TrEMBL record:
GO terms for biological process: regulation of cell shape. GO terms for cellular component: plasma membrane. InterPro entries: Cell/Rod_1, Cell/Rod_MreC_2, MreC, MreC_beta-barrel_core. NCBIfam families: mreC. Involved in formation and maintenance of cell shape. This is Cell shape-determining protein MreC. It comes from Companilactobacillus allii. Belongs to the MreC family. Residues 126-280 form the Rod shape-determining protein MreC beta-barrel core domain. Keywords: Cell shape.
Length: 287
C-alpha cells in the first residue's frame, strides 16, 4: 500500500480519471435536466462530446488494429493455401508429363498410331444463328476446304456443344446438343466414379425447362454423385473419348419409376458463343 501511494504518477492518473468521470456524470445530469438553461445544456453537450471523443479515439484505434490484424492473418492463411495449391498443380503437371511420355512409349510398343483420345482441332467463327432455331442449329465459316466432315463434334470454351450435320465448301451447319430434334445423333458418354470405374450412357436430349442435358441408358447409377464430370466415351465411333460435356446435376426416375436419367449441367454456355472448335478424330480416319 505504501508503495502504491509512493507512485505519484499513478495517483495523479487515478485522480484525473475520477474527476473526469465525476464531471461527466454531473454534466450528463445537468444536460438531461429539463430545467437547466439552454446555455448550460449546450456546455454539457460539448463536455460530453469532448470526453466521448477522448475515449473513442483509443477504442477505435484498438478496433482498427484488431481488424487489420485479422485481415493480415486471413491474407496469410489464404496465401499459404494458394502456395499449397501451386505445389499441387506443379506436381500434377509433372505427373501428367510422365504419363504422357509413358503413353507415347506404350503406343510405340503396341504400334498404335492413334487411340480414342487422339484428335486435332480447327477453330471457326459462327456465321449465322437463326432466332427461330436458336437452340438447334448454327452455321460456321469452315467447310470441306478446311478438312471438315460430317459428324465431327464441335466445342465452345471447355464444353461440347454439338456436331456437324452438313458440310459445304467454305461453311458447315452444326446441330447443337441442345436441339429439340428427337432424331438427332446421340453422344455416347461416361462418368468416372470415385473408383475410376466408367458408368456409361448416352446423352440423348436437352431439358429446356431446367437447362440441363439428359443422359439415358445409364448402366448403373449406384456410385454416381452430384458434381462428377461427364465426358464422351468414344464408343460411338465418330466422337473421340474425353470431350468434356458437363457435371452431374442429379438423377431422376422416369414417369414409371423404371429407369434413371442423369441430369447434367452443360460445361459450355449453350445460348451465346461466337467462336467454336471443331474436333477432328484420328481414329475415325478424319485426319
Amino acid at each position: 500500500m505504501q508503495k502504491f501511494f509512493s507512485n505519484k504518477k499513478l495517483i495523479i492518473l487515478m485522480v484525473i480519471l475520477i474527476v473526469t468521470f465525476g464531471l461527466l456524470a454531473v454534466t450528463v445530469n445537468i444536460r438531461d435536466n429539463k430545467k437547466t438553461p439552454p446555455a448550460i445544456q449546450q456546455v454539457g453537450n460539448d463536455v460530453v462530446s469532448v470526453v466521448g471523443g477522448v475515449f473513442a479515439y483509443p477504442t477505435n484505434a484498438v478496433k482498427s488494429a484488431s481488424s487489420e490484424f485479422s485481415d493480415l492473418y486471413n491474407t496469410y492463411t489464404e496465401n499459404k493455401h494458394l502456395k499449397s495449391r501451386i505445389d499441387e498443380l506443379s506436381q500434377n503437371q509433372v505427373k501428367l508429363k510422365v504419363v504422357q511420355e509413358e503413353n507415347k512409349k506404350l503406343k510405340q510398343e503396341l504400334k498404335l498410331n492413334s487411340t480414342l483420345t487422339d484428335y486435332s482441332t480447327i477453330n471457326a467463327s459462327v456465321l449465322s444463328r437463326s432466332p427461330s432455331s436458336w437452340q438447334s442449329y448454327l452455321t460456321i465459316n469452315r467447310g470441306s476446304s478446311s478438312g471438315l466432315k460430317k459428324n465431327m463434334p464441335v466445342m465452345s470454351g471447355k464444353g461440347l456443344i454439338g456436331r456437324i450435320i452438313e458440310v459445304d465448301k467454305i461453311s458447315s451447319k452444326v446441330e447443337l446438343i441442345s436441339t429439340n430434334n428427337e432424331l438427332n445423333d446421340k453422344f455416347a458418354s461416361e462418368i468416372l466414379d470415385d473408383n475410376n470405374n466408367a458408368v456409361t450412357g448416352v446423352v440423348s436430349r436437352y431439358d429446356s425447362d431446367s437447362g440441363k442435358l439428359v443422359m439415358e441408358n445409364v448402366n448403373n447409377t449406384k456410385n454416381i454423385k452430384k458434381g462428377q464430370r461427364v465426358m464422351t466415351s468414344g464408343l460411338g465411333g465418330v466422337t473421340p473419348r474425353g470431350l468434356y460435356i458437363g457435371k452431374v446435376y442429379g438423377i431422376k426416375k422416369d414417369n414409371y419409376g423404371m429407369t434413371n436419367s442423369v441430369y447434367i449441367t452443360p460445361a459450355a454456355e449453350l445460348r451465346n458463343f461466337t467462336v467454336v472448335t471443331v474436333i477432328k478424330s484420328s481414329v475415325s480416319g478424319e485426319k
